[in-house]
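Dear colleagues,

I hope this message finds you well. In preparation for our joint manuscript, I am sending the Esterase (Dawidia soli) sequence together with its predicted structure, so that both groups work from identical material. I would be grateful if you could confirm receipt.
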Amino acid sequence: MKQHLFIFFFLLIGPCGFSQADQPAVKEDFKPSTLNQPGQEYPQVNSQGYARFRIQAVAADSVGVSLGLGGKGGTKLAKTEDGYWMGTTAGPMDEGFHYYNVNIDGGKFNDPGALNFYGSVRWESGIEIPAHDQDFYALKDVPHGSVHQVLFPSESTHTSRRAFVYTPPGYEKDQSVRYPVLYLQHGWGEDETAWTNQGRANLIMDNLIAEGQIKPFLIVMTYGMTNDVKFGRIREFDVKYFQAVLVDELIPYVESNFRTIADQQHRAMAGLSMGGMETRMITMNRPEVFSHYALLSGGTYKPEDIRDKSKVKLVFLSCGSKERPDGVKSAAAALKDAGFNSVSYISEGTAHEFQTWRRSLRELAPLLFRN
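The corresponding structure tokens are as follows:
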């Protein structure tokens, strides 16, 4: 157990910024980020993946921007004559979504020009670096599913808890159809909004369904931090509390209130980062509940970890090429040699970040619930 917790912590603090070495000249084709507040010109991104920030702080002595989960990778801003502070990242950032916050004289603030996203156990500013493959999560003129917010009773935590349920296009029209379900978990410091807000899971699903690449299924997303765990103290996390919420409370609620195929062969569990750690623990503890397992930058399985091979239809392991790809590929190969239906995927050019996990969901979804 301690080994897997260490691996998770290593991945959590892995690289997610930019390199400063041998960078080309910066092109002055900057445009507002697609995640800006309405009408706001900054932050901006250019065609090379550089980001530029402009912050109003007339009386400040120093202003900087911290990029990435937890606020790593600093960009110092310089004061301009009009009292604004401006600066550009030292190099291009990885494609896709990034958290960031603004440091003004030692205080941490959000950028008023950008939309906010829950990460690092707080609402962070967000910036989107255009990706060469962003079409698969783009908003297109295709039939769209719905994302339902539900409150379900939780006796184990003595409260009602929140979940989001994605239902595919046509779910409301044909009342005779029942669907498989993917239970999809966020990472440390995030919540149940992450997979749709940062990950665009609903748009990925809509596009895959429209292209005929997958059979429709439901996705259920809920908050996985059932006991309070501070950053750097991940070994204190005990999965039994979340396992009770997920398996004993949320799944029965979903199966009573949505048209699901309520058996083990039609349930999958996946998670990114710490959500992958939760997925690994719960699927090992309760093999009768899920038949498809997916760890996205969230560790690996060994063949001996899985007690009953006959109950497992798929093991999917993924990460970014800037993480630990050799470990993921070798683990998947060992599972395949042991007779499992095992698949690995490596997101090229990305680290421990949402572009890795968006791509992973795109690769995972067509593999789920095949006959």
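For the figure legend, we might mention the following. The chain has a mean pLDDT of 91. DSSP finds seven helices and 19 strands in the chain.

With kind regards,
E.M.
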